[in-house]
Write a structure and sequence with these properties.
14 strands; 6-stranded mixed beta sheet; 2 domains; 24% strand; binds flavin-adenine dinucleotide; alpha/beta; globular; D-Amino Acid Oxidase, Chain A, domain 2; 30% helix; FAD/NAD(P)-binding domain
């Protein structure tokens, strides 16, 4: 049995890839709603072109992951809102769709894991996002807000509008999403009206018709930032693999990460 701690997009993607390769897998998450996960909060840009990466190796991994997306989605044939990118435009995907569909395919149990000593799996993958796990490399939460407006006809926006760290995209059902902000203030659970107002103003400058509309949802999440903003992707002993710290690009990097983790486990088990 392979045990995966953390059922955000990274944990679920690893579980699905391992299951496809014939392994028995269980995912543990302390919150089955996953509403506190970065994956639930994320905008879903597949920003291989527009985002900044820690180095050229990670940029190439991001490009590879973006290219894997269409085939990866086809592998589970779920109902996922997805826009494929092109040579000069990043695609995007609805991460809440991904969480829902992947959770239908793999076994997810409600369980808070305090220490790996509690687990008996043949292999363990730690995918705990911004929370990390005691005893393993540190990760810091980077709070980010998003805003949404409903009632805009689908197809009004093509691609992703961007100006610096402000971006706007439209889901297939019409919802407009604007992001984002970055604050290193720990797991702060307040709604900061000034930060939200600033984001709203920047979004309205990018897309002026939003000024006459009501915001229909406001939320935040915690991006997992490890040292140097480089994901922690490593085997630390013959039983444990770490896969967290994907910072601003974990939705983009999910298929590539899942393949890396599954290759690593397959190599270790000699299967
Ligand atoms: C506002 C915002 C916008 C973003 N936009 C984008 C974007 O456009 N494109 C992109 O690629 N990325 C984006 N990201 C980043 C992306 O969301 C993250 O990098 C990615 O979701 C990380 O996934 P994860 O599975 O590692 O972590 P998470 O999704 O946070 O999942 C971790 C899970 O582990 C569980 N957990 C933690 N500790 C334990 C424990 N001890 N026991 C059991 N369960 C535990 C948690 O409950 C949680 O469900 C954005 C993030 C935010 C906040």
């Amino acid at each position: 049995m392979i045990e995966i701690v953390g059922g955000g997009l990274i944990g679920l993607s690893c579980a699905w890839e391992l299951q496809k390769r014939g392994f028995e897998v269980v995912v543990y998450d302390r919150d089955l709603s996953r509403k506190s996960s970065a994956s639930w909060a994320g905008a879903g840009m597949l920003g291989a072109l527009a985002e900044t990466f820690p180095d050229e190796v990670w940029r190439q991994r991001a490009v590879a992951s973006a290219a894997m997306y269409g085939g990866w989605l086809a592998s589970f044939n779920g109902s996922v809102d997805f826009y494929e990118g092109s040579l000069d435009m990043d695609g995007h995907v609805d991460p809440r769709d991904l969480l829902r569909e992947l959770s239908l395919l793999v076994c997810v149990e409600e369980r808070c894991v305090g220490s790996l000593d509690e687990l008996a799996g043949e292999q363990i993958v730690v995918c705990t996002g911004a929370w990390g796990l005691s005893g393993f490399p540190d990760v810091e939460p980077v709070k980010g807000y998003l805003l949404a407006w409903d009632g805009v006809p689908a197809g009004t926006l093509q691609g992703i509008l961007r100006d610096g760290h402000t971006y706007i995209l439209q889901r297939g059902r019409g919802r407009i999403i604007a992001g984002s902000t970055e604050e290193r203030i720990g797991f702060d659970a307040s709604m900061d009206e000034d930060v939200i107002a600033g984001l709203r103003k920047r979004a309205e400058e990018l897309l002026p018709f939003l000024k006459s509309m009501q915001v229909s949802e406001r939320w935040y999440g915690f991006r997992p930032a490890a040292a140097g903003n480089v994901p922690v992707l490593q085997r630390i002993n013959d039983r444990v693999v770490l896969a967290y710290g994907h910072y601003r690009n974990g939705i983009l990097l999910a298929p590539w990460t899942a393949r890396w983790v599954a290759d690593e486990i397959q190599r270790q088990l000699g299967k």
